[in-house]
Amino acid sequence: MTPHNIARNILAPLGLAGLMTLGALAQPTINKVPPSVITSPVDAKGSYTQYCAVCHGTLGKGDGPAAVALKKAPADLTRLAKKNGGKYPETRVSRYITGEETVAAHGTRDMPVWSQIFHSMDAQNKIKDDLRVYNLVAYIKTLQVD
Predict the structure, then answer these.
(1) Residue 17, SS3?
(2) This prediction's pTM
(3) Per-residue pLDDT tens for 97-107?
C-alpha cells in the first residue's frame, strides 16, 4: 500500500479529510469533507477518535496523521490543565470546539467548527449536538497529564 493510500484510508473514515497528498516535494494538503461516520453523542471516546484524533492524535498530543498538513501544529490536548495552573479549562475547551472562541495557534481556523458539523448530522436535535460537545470536553479531560 502506498503512503497516499495509507493516508486516504486513515483520514477518510475520520471525516475531516478525504485526501492527503504526500510527496517529497509536495506540501501535504487536507480536503475537508463531511463526516462519513456519525458516532453516538454518548460515545465520547468514539467521537474523539472519529472527529479529533486525525489532527490531535489518539493520545491527544497533537501528532495525528493530518497534523503535518496544517499551517499550525494542533494543540497538545494532554497539557491543557497544566498550562492553566493545574485546572482543566472546561468552558474554554467547549468554546473552542463549538467555535465560540478561537485558538490563536489555529490562525485562520484550520480546526473545524464542530458545533456546525454536529448540527448537520442531526439538524432536528440540538440536544445531541450539545451532548456530543459536553462528552468530548469530558473525554479530553481524561487525557490530561501532570
Answers:
(1) strand
(2) 0.72
(3) 888 887 554 44
All cell numbers assigned to 106: 489555529
**Domain boundaries, given as residue ranges, for the chain:** 39-142
Looking at the DSSP bridge assignments, the partners of residue 20 are: 30
Q: Is 112 helix (H, G, I), strand (E, B) or coil?
A: coil
**Would you state the cell numbers that stand for residue 59, as one nine-digit string?**
493520545
Q: How many CB atoms lie within 10 A of CB 40?
A: 12
Strand partners, 17: 32
Beta strands in 14-144 (DSSP E): 17-20, 30-32
Q: What is the CATH number of domain 39-142?
A: 1.10.760
With contact defined as beta carbons under 8 Å apart, do 103 and 110 qualify?
A: no
Give me 63's grid cell: 501528532
